[in-house]
């Protein structure tokens, strides 16, 4: 395959100078120099080949629910896979497998499972994002991790466009972690194990799902945020902090620091519902506002507890790391 610039444009696969502010949850950030929305593996390969041919950096993203895009945009090709197939197979009376393409929303998948009497993924009810984003971060809600239901995934190699099927071990799931963080592979589809249950159990599971969504809506902001901005601390990071650094939970320190609902930078403010969730509450909000608010939060926690909060949110288009690193 050797498609040049002209061919890609002619085929309508690659677009130029496309805004990203309407493709992420903060609603901030500049344009992508190039953009594609592949609906098939072949178009995904064409997009990656285009990047190779033109020596462009690539960034693959889903619904932008965990993404902060630089105000100056992204000088590369942003790929937003819109592959939506879902395929169910019964392995036994109780055990089913569902193979789902990367562009499907996790909450839509849960609904489709429940319609077929299948359970297992409902702890993630109400969390925004696609399957690609969910596998990337090993989506978590309290003790549930999406990697626990994961069986295998098909990935595409960034430089060669080759396709591989990798099992759960190869995905190296950890807290906020999977093999996708190395950016050599992008997810095409994932297979999850789900359980077939009785109608009564489905009714119970639907009730549980409604309760999870109700709780989430009361605890967390629902718009113009990326969810948790900073990740929890690792054990070795706590050992580097002062004697007040005792919990892994970042929200513990942010709550104590009194930033919730008050600390602001321009159009970005710490949510009044959750101290680790930043929101943009004005239409003139910029990504720089979010960065400077996050830096202020880091400085407060460093001064008080000797710890430097680290990002859970993913960055796109920043030439240098804009926050304090450890
Ligand atoms: C209101 C709110 C609540 C949230 N609550 C939770 C929560 O409870 N638990 C939780 O874990 N998260 C939570 N999040 C964060 C977010 O929902 C998850 O990180 C989600 O998985 C992001 O999916 P996405 O498709 O939007 O990914 P994006 O934000 O588009 O991308 C995130 C990362 O995934 C990578 N990625 C996306 N697709 C692919 C692919 N096909 N191949 C390789 N890499 C890919 C991107 O490169 C990027 O680095 C919340 C966010 C919001 C806005």
Please summarize what this structure is.
With 326 residues, this protein is an alpha+beta fold. It has nine helices and 17 strands. It has helices spanning 5-10, 41-53, 106-115, 131-137, 168-171, 199-219, 235-240, 250-257, 287-305; strands at 14-19, 31-36, 58-60, 67-69, 74-79, 86-90, 95-101, 118-119, 140-141, 144-145, 150-157, 163-167, 185-196, 264-265, 268-270, 278-280, 314-316.
Element-by-element helix/strand order = HEEHEEEEEHEHEEEEHEHHHEEEHE
User: Based on CA inertia axes, which overall geometry fits?
Assistant: globular
Q: Write out the distinct hetero groups bound to the structure.
A: flavin-adenine dinucleotide
Whole-angstrom Rg: 20 Å
β-strand number: 17
Number of helices: 9
Classification by helices and strands: alpha+beta
* Helix content bin: 25-40%
Task: Provide tags for this entry.
326 residues; alpha+beta; Uridine Diphospho-n-acetylenolpyruvylglucosamine Reductase, domain 2; Uridine Diphospho-n-acetylenolpyruvylglucosamine Reductase, domain 3; Uridine Diphospho-n-acetylenolpyruvylglucosamine Reductase, domain 1; 3 domains; 4-stranded mixed beta sheet; 29% helix; binds flavin-adenine dinucleotide
